[in-house]
Sequence to fold (205 residues):
Amino acid sequence: MINYVYILASLSLFHTALGAVAGAPVLPESTELYNRGAVIEEVVSISNVSHYRIELPKSDRTTITASKAPDGTRVWSSDGSMANDRYKLAKGFLDTPSVSKQGGLNNAGFVQLSGCINLDKAPQLIPSDKGGFYRSSSASVDPNMNFQGSRCEGYKQFVECVQPSNKQFILRCCNDEEDCPAPSGSQKCSDVLKGSYGACAEART
Fold:
């Protein structure tokens, strides 16, 4: 004998469940990697001359000073391994890049990436800009110039000097703050952060 009461009850439960699913909010397939106003953890890194991540202006043709405004920078990847490929550096961004590891002043150790910027491959920069530097949020020197949430993978802090007008670039990640000084005034990157700058080693600021 067919149990009509059981069938009717089952149909009622089915329609209730179907209505709940239909009314449920649809989740987006992906979310924005960066949200304006949110604290962004920007992680720079140095593996070798082909694989690195550096801090640069988010938008095209921006001075280093202007990029220090909130939400003005992004971490750009040399090999496209970032989750958002929009921030991938053009191939050949640095001419004759060099990576070296050293003991540092107190033997705490640091690693650095240096080279000469190929301005034809750097739409983020303005060739006449005298540039400046970025510093990790962990640095105690001049905290107003630090980027909240920024750090270097495997090291306690970093300093990055970008000077488009003389094409000098260097990113240094260190464990001892004394190994990560920053240029000031008319100083070149190479005046304070010794490294291999290729053809622009003797350039003037």
Q: What stands out?
A: The longest strand covers residues 94-102. Strands lie at 42-46, 52-57, 73-77, 94-102, 110-117, 132-136, 146-147, 150-152, 157-163, 168-174.
